[in-house]
Amino acid sequence: MPALRRSALATLAVALVLLVAAPAASAAPFNFTNWDLTGSLTLAKLKQSIAFPAGSKFNGSLELTNGALTGHVTVPQFTSRLKVLGLPVDATIQFVEAQPVSGQVTFGSPNITIDATTSATLKIRRLSSPLLQLNLVGNQCQTSAPVVLPLHYVGPPTLFTGFTFTGTTTIPRLTHCGLATPLLNQLMAGSGNAFTATIAPPAT
Questions:
Q1: How far apart are CA 12 and CA 10, in angstroms?
Q2: CA gap 62, 163 in Å, rounded
Q3: For the segment 170-196, what is each residue's pLDDT rounded down to a tens digit?
Q4: Tens digits of per-residue pLDDT, 103-112?
Q5: Burial of 151 (0-12, 13-18, 19+ CB in 10 A)
Q6: Residue (of 198, 74, 95) closest to 148 by Cα position
């Protein structure tokens, strides 16, 4: 196991021990520094998944005195290929944080419970096809409200693999997407979009 990951896991293990053994006033926060974020969002209407790109990160802190969890998620702009009516479509997507991660960690034995939320505005920077190299959405295309992700985890403090959150979210209606707006709303907007997100200590 790389030294950096061993160091991060050791620090978290010590922090969990201190939470139980030390007086509340003396417990220092645990910092999540450049933890890797992996996962995907499945577009329910299209039945296709968009994977979060390499370089996605979670940075935050856990207050061991009261279990308060805060942090920020960063996802680099990326392009994902989808199929619409059997034709290939390349969507360049950006998630812009609207609400930082905020929630609560409850420590039990042997499991912990994490309940938090975060939200981001979904922007489509470019929509084109290998068959038609034109941007069909202009540069203002985005959801009319942020996409809210409810983050829930119950299980052991999995120090080696991190924590995986699963759930569903609603994609709000898209606006300012030009002539493609009605079609995008028909294909994307709505509830029941499954997601999975895993945060883990950096490998290197």
A1: 5
A2: 14
A3: 999 999 999 999 999 999 999 999 999
A4: 999 998 899 9
A5: buried
A6: 95
Residue 36 inside a domain? The answer is yes
Give the range of the structural domain holding residue 122, as residue numbers without chain letter: 3-15+29-200
Cα 20 to Cα 27: distance, rounded to the nearest angstrom: 10
Residue 24: inside a domain, yes or no? no
Q: How many CB atoms lie within 10 A of CB 50?
A: 20
Beta strands in the chain, from DSSP E residues, in sequence order:
30-43, 48-51, 57-62, 68-74, 78-84, 87-107, 112-128, 142-143, 147-155, 163-171, 174-175, 190-200
190 within a domain of the structure (yes/no) = yes
Residue 85 tokens read as 């009516």
- Cβ of 109: how many Cβ atoms within 10 Å? 6
**Angle at 49 (CA atoms; ends 73, 104), nearest 5 degrees:** 35
pTM confidence score: 0.85
Structural domain count of the chain: 1
Assigned domain for 21 exists: no
Residue 144 DSSP one-character state: S
